[in-house]
Amino acid sequence: MQTASHCIPLGHIQTYFDLRKSIIMQIDWLEKRSQIKFHNPHELLEVIIGINPDEFYQKAAIDFRDTSTPCFISIEQCLSLIEQAITALEMPYLGLAMGSLMTISHHGMAGVAAVTQPNLGLCLETISRFCSELFPPLEMRSRVENNEGLFVISENMSLAPYSHFFYELNMVSFYNIFVHLVGGEHELKSADFSYPEPPWGNIYRRYFRCPVRFNQPETCLRGDASLVSYELPLANRLMAMAAEKTLFENIPTRAIRLLPLRLRRLLLRYYGAFPSLEDAATDLGMSGRTLRRKLAEDGTTYQQELDQVREKLAKEYFYRGGESITELSLMLGFADSSAFAKAFRRWTGLSPTEYLERPHD
Questions:
Q1: pLDDT exceeds cutoff 90 at 102
Q2: For a disulfide at 10, which of 1, 71, 126, 262, Cβ 3.0-4.6 Å?
Q3: CATH class of the region 258-356
């Protein structure tokens, strides 16, 4: 999947970037909700009000007025929208501010379908599935390990230079949803970020009552494992099903048809015994030649996709406390640990040993 691939439903992105609909144009409200004291708040509101939707989308080469056919935008276009907003508002921490302004209703039918699940675990599974369809560059998943429940956010492909924007927005937004659903009964153990603390790191701590940690193995919300079975106050299976049906009727998606993502999901199921290109092609319902051609059209190869999966699995192995490089090499199908170490350095710029010895907060 290339940054030029048109895979993101414009209708989904518009829920984030129609600032004039999502923000009440009152200084007190804006500062209270965003927890940011603005030096020139009136000037900020003038900028928000002055953002012209036509120009905003046109600068990103997006025609948002044609509603006759489903509109999808590329990752490049999405990043252009973010750059415009951050520049216009002079807020490098815009992800934090936008995340704090979003409520469950702001997520539309996706939010309704998630919060009406029977328990928090199913809520997170629903969010993960929606993310795969509505914003395929990101991946969200939940898991339980060592008596802890984790909700992990990672990139399927680089969103640089604005990766932090997506992590900030989603981490703050989902933390607020957690607080809304669980109330004062429970608190999370930490909000972890996989990158160094940015210059505006102090602002992060305004949004979380739990500890905020940088330079962590994964970007995730971390809590007690028992939270997975926490019964949600808004649980309603019929409403959840109806909301999901309405969501996908109104916002068509195409992520499920993106071949590189389908291939990666297939390879993940074969952890430890990856199929050959020909066998993978058969599982995907095509010939090896067709698979090569279609991957080439998407700017990738079978080997590149296999390496993406191997890197992901290697990092998860280390995250979970695994330390045997020899064992991991064999699990990932390498002839020996030397071949794995060479590939791992190519992926991360570090040897497996250096990666294991990285300092964490």
A1: no
A2: 71
A3: mainly alpha
